[in-house]
């Protein structure tokens, strides 16, 4: 397997993972499709009973956990003269964290928090962006391991005190990530931070993507001979033998 093939596998893996999480730039209709909760109300580590019931609606009794996606920071476009500009997205919810919810409403955050790819450069000219992939990668390289270790320790602590510390640390981590990536001072006067976070069911977490991502990881790690894959990623078509 040549280096071009490995590079393509890495790119396709990243593109697939980014697409599964969804966009960070939201229309008003998309934003309203989420469940909205005050971040402060989540510090107990438990969802409201009404939302828990909706999540488990139509689920069999054997299902004890539901996968969800949490968008902890939501920015809405500021109005100008009573109207929002159509040139900017209605809302930006750039950070996305997977979590699980049990039938008691307890929510357990995954240690990994991702940033939506559609709001980061490089992108096509004219796209609305808030930062760069290069800045995100640099920050994650320095901070993600310590955050994951700290999250695991707080999970083990449990109880009301553990949930409070976990969600406080989670909020601090998200703000630090965003500040590091948004190097040009975003949101400035364009957007205002909401007091709410967004939650939705993770419909893609158990789909085909969960099998394809490990496949791409395996390709990159083992780099076994794969003539057909090499041909597929070649810059020029292979010569046909007479």
Provide a descriptive summary of the structure in words.
This protein is of the alpha+beta class and 242 residues long. It has helices spanning 3-21, 28-32, 49-55, 133-157, 159-181, 209-222, 227-232; strands spanning 25-26, 35-38, 65-71, 75-77, 79-80, 83-84, 91-92, 95-102, 107-115, 120-121, 131-132, 191-193, 196-201. It has a five-stranded antiparallel sheet. Strand 5 and strand 6 (83-84) form a beta hairpin. Helix 1 packs antiparallel against helix 6 (209-222) and helix 4 packs antiparallel against helix 5. The model has no long low-confidence stretch (mean pLDDT 83).
What is the gist of this entry?
Helices cover about 40% and strands about 20% of the residues. With about 240 residues, the protein is of the alpha+beta class.
Largest sheet: 5 strands, antiparallel
Number of strands: 13
Major sheet: arrangement of strands: 2-13-3-8-9
SSE succession: HEHEHEEEEEEEEEHHEEHH
The coarse silhouette is: globular
Distance between the termini: 26 Å
The secondary structure category is alpha+beta
Low-confidence stretches: none
Mean residue pLDDT: 83
Oligomerization state = single chain
Counting H and I runs of at least 4 residues, what is the number of helices?
7
Beta-strand fraction estimate:
15-25%
Radius of gyration from the CA trace? 21 Å
What level of helicity do the residues show? 40-55%
């Amino acid at each position: 397997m040549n280096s071009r093939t490995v590079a393509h596998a890495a790119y396709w893996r990243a593109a697939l993972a980014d697409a599964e999480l969804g966009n960070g730039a939201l229309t008003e209709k998309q934003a309203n499709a989420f469940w909205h909760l005050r971040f402060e109300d989540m510090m107990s580590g438990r969802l409201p009973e009404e939302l828990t019931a909706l999540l488990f609606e139509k689920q069999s009794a054997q299902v004890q956990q539901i996968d969800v996606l949490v968008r902890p920071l939501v920015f809405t476009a500021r109005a100008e003269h009573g109207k929002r500009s159509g040139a900017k997205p209605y809302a930006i919810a750039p950070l996305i964290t997977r979590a699980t919810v049990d039938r008691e409403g307890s929510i357990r955050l995954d240690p990994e928090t991702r940033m939506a790819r559609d709001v980061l450069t490089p992108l096509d000219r004219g796209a609305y962006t808030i930062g760069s992939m290069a800045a995100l990668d640099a920050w994650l390289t320095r901070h993600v391991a310590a955050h994951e270790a700290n999250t695991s320790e707080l999970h083990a602590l449990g109880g009301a005190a553990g949930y409070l510390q976990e969600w406080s640390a989670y909020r601090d981590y998200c703000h630090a990530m965003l500040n590091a990536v948004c190097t040009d001072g975003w949101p400035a006067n364009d957007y205002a931070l909401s007091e709410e976070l967004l939650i939705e069911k993770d419909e893609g977490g158990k789909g085909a993507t969960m099998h394809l991502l490990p496949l791409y990881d395996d390709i990159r790690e083992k780099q076994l001979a794969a003539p057909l894959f090499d041909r597929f990623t070649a810059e020029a078509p292979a010569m046909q033998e007479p």
